[in-house]
Amino acid sequence: MTEQPGRWLGLDFGLARIGVAISDPLGITARGIETLRWNGRDAEPALLRLLELLDEHQIAGIVLGQPRRTDGRASASEAEAEGFAAALAERCQLPIVRVDERFTTVLAHRLLSELDWRGDRRRVIDQVAAEIILQDYLDRRARAARAPLNGASEPDFGCTCQE
To answer: Average pLDDT of the chain?
Structure first.
């Protein structure tokens, strides 16, 4: 996994909305910050906003959720996510780590239910999913970094990260 120090941005990609989360400067914790709305065709406004966030927060890398089907096969929106990632990579020159995002929206709904969230879920659900995607990546990266210190070989966490 990429070992870039600094803040990371997490993205929950969808054809109508993109949830955005950011890590703290040490890359330990994630929090949702924004939901970008777009029409699924013209990515330019979303890309421009992401470029602003990358610059504003001095982002070291991006974690992009790959929208896969629950059975693990490619989804209809996965090609769109790949095209979006390519356009973003071309403009920002940062590492983009792709991770399997299956069930993150389900987990986000469950978390909001457990927190007894009373507000409009559509407004925050993608941010929460992006937060889950990013936090999972940060946790896996931290465990992998600690493993050699314990004298063990680097563990396989089953992460489907693609760098």
So the answer is: 80
At the fourth CATH level, which superfamily is domain 7-148?
A: YqgF/RNase H-like domain (3.30.420.140)
**Other Cβ atoms within 10 Å of 124 Cβ, number:** 17
* pTM summary value: 0.77
By three-state DSSP, how is residue 25 classified? Answer: coil
Domain ranges of the chain: 7-148
What phi, psi does 58 have (nearest 5°)?
50, 60
Among 163, 17, 7, CA closest to 77: 17
HSE (side-chain half, CA atoms, 13 Å) at 28: 2
Cα(13)–Cα(161) distance, integer angstroms: 15
